[in-house]
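anyone seen this seq b4? input:
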Amino acid sequence: AWTFAGSGHVFVTAGTPAVIEIEDNPVATAPCHYHIAVFTRLFQVLVHPRAEAQETMCCADGAAACRFAISWSRR
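predicted toks r here
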């Protein structure tokens, strides 16, 4: 997780959507284009080709964590 979070803390919640949170994200930029792209591509390759990550809150906007929801359609 250090690759995505640097000195921040990463928390993952499995489900639909899958949620990844990075507290104290040292590279937060609202929106976090880097993380959105990396999580989208990782999930497309490893889980489902139609996976898509969206940032639902960001440290750069004053949130406690950057939160990314990753979902995919099984159609």
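DSSP finds two helices and four strands in the chain. The chain has a mean pLDDT of 90. kinda curious what u guys think
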